[in-house]
Amino acid sequence: MGYEQSVGPMRLARIRSEANIAAYRSDGARLPVIGAAVVAVVYFLAAKLGEALAFPSAPVSALWAPNAILFAVLLLTPLRHWWLYLLAVLPLHVMAQLPVSPIEQVAIQYVLNCAESMLGAAALLWLESQPQRFAKLSTMANLIVLGSLVAPFITSAAMAGAFTALNLTDEFWLTTIARTITNTFATMTLVPLIAHCANALATGNFRVHWNRAPEVLLITACLVITGALVFILPGEHHERFPALLYAPIPLLLFATVRFGIIGAAGSVLTLGALATWGVLHDAGPFIDPVPVHNALSLVLFLNVTCAPLLLLAAVMQERKEAAAALRRSEVLHRSVLASLQDQVAVVDSAGIVIEINESWRRARERAHFQVIALLPGDNCLEATLGVAESGDPIGSQVRDALEGVLSGDRPRCELEFSSSHHGQMRWFELSIEPLRRPERGAVIILSDVTARIRAELEVQEQQQQLAHLARVAVLGEFSGAIAHEIRQPLAAMLTNAEAGALLMAAEQVDVESVREILNDIIADSVRAAQVVQRLRSMLRKVQPHRRPVQLNDVVQESLMLARIDLALRGVFASVKLDSSLPCVPGDRVQIQQVILNLIVNACQAMADVPPEAKRLTLSTRWLQGSHEVELAVADGGEGIDEAQLEKIFQPFVTTKEKGLGLGLSISRSIIGAHAGRLWAENARIGTGAVFHLTLPSGDREPLVDGWPLTVGSLSVEPSRGKEKFTAER
Which whole-number Å values give the CA distances from 117 to 37, 157, 434, in the listed order? Predict the structure, then answer.
């Protein structure tokens, strides 16, 4: 069960206590009640200890721990349970204070003690993301400044003012200073200790390292001996005593360095106990005729000694955790590099290889490329220069790419190349990425992409075979019309040949008539040859070849192939061509295949409509804004269901009874391979569907400036199968 801390406008809602999360998950709602009872008892015992450690004839205790204990508990407790702990300590506070203090003084002390603890805890929760862990310099500094100085000073001033107003004291500043510095010492030493132990218990990291016990005992013994020599042994006040105050410093520093926050706080508490014993028995360097001065001097000495030690411990812990995080990052970095199958090398800004992964090392034994033979310390730029000078163009390309990335001129670079190894062709991809660090550098990744390239080639081959079969299927739709178109010139040639033979058999040959007959035969043979040539282009299975293609010409050729079939189906076809169309880079046969497929689909969509509605329109235009050319094929059919407008381009989706549903899918693949688009929509005016095809132009500017011009139209009339060509201006 998680919890969130929220104090109105404060940002405490974002702070979570991991120690209490684990505690509440295990013990439920009973734990706060039990914890509050335990805290109340400890609070009472600490108050009695503080009274026992009070200096004679001085309103100062060497260690007033109740406020620090309550501070630590509130810091580790969800905000919604604060009231429970504050309420639990009330009766124990009254029991500890009432016999020796008037009721109004007890009430004021309770309110301001609670206020001091809440102010300190709230300040840390507000400012720190992990206020329960004093492993950062900022957290420890905020504890010392805000929790140990500011909060005690504010509440001490308020308490001194209340006592003065009630005539409980006439020493406002003495009461303020005395209460502030005693609470400062208790907060600095006890709060980090309590928080550290609570976090260790909650996370299960509380372990006793017995192998370090001798070291702890030795430091403690040395500190006790040194503290006794400085603070306890009786002796007359002497000038050497102030200098002896520096004697424990090396031991305190050693305890801090070896044991961190626990070592710093524990050693200072030990030293404070010895110093308090000495003052209570009129021994040590803090001997002054005024008892209050003795007490304040001792506590101030302990505060000044403790603060830098705690800051040092926090800095060391922060550096330790940062170093551990760096080691984990390095281990993860090496693990990631070692697990990569690709060959990875890291180079510095000068091109020196500073690290390679295990895959790179293994690849050196079967290197397909000379750069892979590099080891840490080798200069990649020099190696690629040597490869380039030997005549290998790949070396020159890699060097130029690496120099561009290292200089910052290129954000990244990728190269693909092939290499023959033991008679087998393999393909590689070389990627160079900039190294994101102030010193710059680059990461070189060499990947064997042979499997991917072979798969792509296989897919491409299959797509080409499928496209070829689709072309054959499209031409199958025109088989009757094509046969009719070939029969016409053949029949005409036969008739002309028979007529020529008759003329040649006459006694007097009419040469002019024979010449006309021969010219007709030649024209008919050319016409038949053109039909056969167009068929051969469509039926041949060849590799796609990209060349500049004029879309208007392809549209006209496609319509010429389909004109007889259109006439037999009773379809009136017209084209409107934009003369400003630039050429497009593409394969002429594949584009013609797509157009023929759209024509066939349009004719089949109009199979059941009235004769006057069988109209097919092919129009082109130049889209200057996007530098594309567009072909629109509109029919007069019933249109396409809105839900099917995109599905019809999926494989095996068809509305025909005998269709396979591959024509439009293949057509979209072809246009996509040409970096174009193919989509369908229903006509906005009238009925029918419109298929749009766009292709990127090879020229950035149209061939004709100004507005697009419709220079003419080609019409095929269905009446008696005759072709009619009209030109419109």
Answer: 18, 15, 52
Please, which residues bridge with residue 444 across strands? 345, 432
CATH number at residue 597: 3.30.565.10
In contact, 122 and 7? CB cutoff 8 Å: yes
Nearest to 349 by CA among 410, 408, 395: 408
Residue 371 has pLDDT above 80, yes or no: no
CA separation for the pair 380, 402 (Å, rounded):
9
Confirm if 3 and 16 have CB atoms less than 8 A apart.
yes
Measured CA angle at 601 (ends 595, 602), to 5 deg: 90
CA distance 566 to 699: 34
Nearest to 252 by CA among 210, 211, 279, 224: 224
Single residue among 189, 207, 225 that ends a domain in this structure: 207
Tens digits of per-residue pLDDT, 128-137?
888 888 888 9
Query: Of the residues 392, 418, 448, which one is the last residue of a structural domain?
Result: 448
Same domain, 662 and 523: no
- pLDDT tens, 644-687? 777 788 776 666 655 556 678 778 878 888 889 999 888 877 77
- Report how many domains make up the chain: 5
DSSP string, 124-146: HHHH-SSTT---SHHHHHHIIII
Angle (nearest 5°) at CA 241 between 237 and 242: 120
**CA 207 to chain CA centroid, nearest Å:** 39
Averaged pLDDT, 512-520: 76
Note whether 178 and 59 are within 8 A (CB). Answer: yes
* Amino acid symbol at 169: T
Find how far residue 658's CA is from the centre of its chain.
Answer: 49
126 plus 61 within the same structural domain = yes
Query: Does 154 score more than 80 pLDDT?
Result: yes
Query: Do 144 and 281 fall within a single domain?
Result: no
Task: Tell me if residue 676 falls in helix, strand or coil.
Answer: coil
Any residues with CB less than 8 A from the CB of 125 and at least 6 apart, and which? 5, 12, 15, 75, 79, 131
**Domain that residue 270 falls in:** 208-330
Q: How many CB atoms within 10 Å of residue 218?
A: 11
369 lies in the same domain as 240: no
Same domain, 424 and 460: no
Whether 535 maps to a domain, the answer reads: yes
Helices 172-203 and 103-127, packing angle to 10 deg: 50
Residue 397 lies in a domain: yes
What is the spatial distance between Cα 574 and Cα 555, in angstroms, rounded to a whole number? 11
Strands 713-716 and 572-576 turn out to be antiparallel
CATH number, residue 511? 1.10.287
Q: Please indicate, yes or no, if residue 335 is contained in any of the structural domains.
A: no
324 and 345 co-located in one domain: no
Residues 10 and 83 in one domain: yes
Q: Does residue 602 share a domain with residue 492?
A: no
pLDDT of residue 13: 38
